[in-house]
Structure formats: structure tokens, C-alpha cells
Amino acid sequence: MNLTEIARELDVAHILDGSIQAQGNRLQVIAELINVNDSSILGSWKRTYDNKLADVLTIQDDFSQFIAEKLKIRFDIGKFGNAEAIKHANPEAYDYYLKGMNFITSRYESTYDEKDFQAALSMFQRALDINPDYAQAYAQKKQ
User: What pTM did the predictor assign?
Assistant: First the structure.
């Protein structure tokens, strides 16, 4: 699915696209705000982190706040969950959660193949094996 199709499905005119590049313990996070009607880039931001990969949740939080400031948006974590729980999630469990979400969003939603769905459930279960109190992984597994 390309950005235009995603924007149409979400009924939005702009999409924030991003990437992460890793070299050793250095991460470069890049984000671009794209106008999907003409594919123009309305803004582009980049930050480099020299943190350990285990600090990925801190990096995620910092970059999210950075982008919100650039877009002049006040991010209210209360609408989306407990910020402290997100910051203290086990990075390995979080990785399995992201892998599970990838199976759902990148594979299952386009193929509806039961194997992809089962693979996602397996990733959520691995996250729960590492961190039994991981509410997001538990919620996805129960859907």
C-alpha cells in the first residue's frame, strides 16, 4: 500500500513518514511531513542519537516530542495510555510487540492469511512472556 492509498483509507491529506538508520550504537531518526495530494514535503526533521539501542523507548519519546513541537501540536499522552508504563516497558518485549504489529499491519491486513495472524499472536505472546504486565501486547492478543 502506498502513501496515497494509506491517506485515502485514513481520510487524511498529510502523512508523517519516517525512517531509522542504525550504525553501532548510533541511531539517526528522520521524519517528513508529506502532502499526499501533490507529494510535496512540507517539513523534514532529523535527529541523531548516540544512545544504546536499549534506550529506544527514550529515543521514541524524545523524537515524538520533538516532532510535536515542530508541528506545534500538544501531545496529550493521557488520551493514549500511561506515559510511565510506556517509558518503563522492557525493550525486548517492546520489540516483539512491534514485530507482532508488523505482522498485523503489513501482512495480515492485506492478505488475511491465517499464518500471518498466528505469527502476530506468537510475537505478542513472546512480549508477554518477557513482561506479563505488558498491557498493549495483552490487548492485541485478545482482539
Answer: 0.49
